[in-house]
Write a structure and sequence with these properties.
By secondary structure, the protein is α/β, with parallel strands linked by helices. The chain is built from two helices and six strands. It starts with 32 loop residues before the first strand and ends with a helix. It comes from marine metagenome.
Length: 123
């Protein structure tokens, strides 16, 4: 086991201080950002919030609601994938990755119980 000894922070160590704003209401705040991905040069503009790929949150119904607000949904891996805007296909590492079809997906989520497993690193 490797022990990392550098400083760790938690919520009690972080203070978010408000700053002055010209906005008159919180609804006027624009949370959208543009991201350019380093290795693909693909760009995406939206709110960087992703609904988890769990049974009750990674659904098509949630995707419809979040897409209206430019947010993303990681589809539950047990749902049959259909290409939709702002939908992330979840691929469980309990399957043979070489046999999976994810060519139609703009995004994929590799679902693994333990990110330190050698199988995950080899992919």
């Amino acid at each position: 086991m490797r022990i990392i000894e550098n400083t760790k922070l938690d919520f009690s160590d972080v203070l978010i201080s408000p700053k002055r704003s010209q906005l008159t209401s919180r609804k006027d705040a624009d949370l959208t950002r543009q991201f350019t991905f380093k290795h693909s040069k693909y760009t995406w503009t939206g709110v960087p919030i992703i609904a988890s790929n769990m049974d009750h949150t990674g659904t098509y119904k949630v995707n419809v609601v979040l897409t209206a607000h430019k947010m993303l949904t990681a589809l539950c891996k047990f749902e049959k994938f259909q290409v939709r805007e702002n939908l992330i296909q979840t691929i469980g590492l309990d399957k043979n990755l070489d046999e999976l079809d994810y060519d139609d997906s703009e995004w994929i989520c590799l679902d693994v119980a333990n990110g330190y497993t050698e199988r995950f690193n080899d992919y």
